[in-house]
Amino acid sequence: MAYDTNPRSDSHTGAERVSVSLADPPAPPSIDLGALGRSLAFHVRKAQLALQRRGLRVRSEQHVGPAEFGTLVLCEQNPGMAQFQIAAALDIDKASVVAVVDRLEELGWLLRRRSHQDRRRYGLSLTPEGQRQVQILRRQAEEAEAFAQDLFNPQELEQLLGLLGRLG
Questions:
Q1: What number of other Cβ atoms are within 10 A of residue 104's Cβ?
Q2: Element (H or E) spanning 71, and its range?
Q3: Contact 133, 141 (CB under 8 A)
Q4: Which are the contacts of 62, defined by CB distance < 8 A and separation ≥ 6?
Q5: CA of 143: how far to CAs of 31, 46, 52, in Å?
Q6: Residue 110 has what pLDDT?
Q7: In angstroms, rounded to a whole number, what is the distance separating the alpha carbons of residues 65 and 58?
Q8: Is the separation of the CB atoms in 87 and 101 below 8 Å?
Q9: C-alpha separations of 45 from 23, 36, 75, 118 in Å
Q10: Which among 55, 54, 75 is positioned nearest to 64, based on CA atoms?
Q11: What percent of the chain has pLDDT over 70?
């Protein structure tokens, strides 16, 4: 235990204070995770957090999140895609997709066009600025996931993606 012997005076009361710093407690030996050790949800969540710590939570000046990034990528790959299709592909509710599309439209990255066949449907497409932004964001996401190439060989990574895909 270390003591800070530099007295500090409290300007409000005129009293002196002594600060004490305590050493960090030792790390626990090993932790028994119990049922968590066999929980798929627990391990998937830990993997998600590890990816986020490495930057997978896509970053940009506009603080674009996973739903916005996913929408941009889907619109790049599928010009004219409808909002309900994005909701299904990203597994998010339709109201959330509307908010995401509104935001991307405000940023000038996405255009919403009424369908000629079905006037209730809107097709989505990227603007030139949206195309530029999705390329930047995709590079950032690829950099964030690059560490996985050190953990898995290409076959293992492909197998992992296939197995996770079966869950969704």
A1: 25
A2: helix 66-77
A3: no
A4: 107
A5: 32, 19, 12
A6: 96
A7: 6
A8: no
A9: 32, 11, 27, 40
A10: 55
A11: 80
Q: Residues 168, 92: contact at Cβ < 8 Å?
A: no
Check residue 1 and give its pLDDT. Answer: 47
The identity of residue 7, as a single letter, is P
Report yes or no: 81 and 112 within 8 Å, Cβ to Cβ: no
Extract the tokens encoding 75.
């619109």
Amino acid present at 136: I
The parts of the chain modelled with pLDDT lower than 50 are: 1-5
Run of H or E including 72: helix 66-77
Among 68, 102, 70, 96, CA closest to 84: 96
Of all residues in the chain, the percent with pLDDT exceeding 90 is 42
Specify the pTM: 0.70
Decide if 113 contacts 122 (C-beta within 8 A). yes
- pLDDT at site 2: 46
- CATH fold of the domain at 57-141: Arc Repressor Mutant, subunit A (1.10.10)
Q: Which residues contact 7 (CB under 8 A, 6 or more apart)?
A: 16, 17, 18
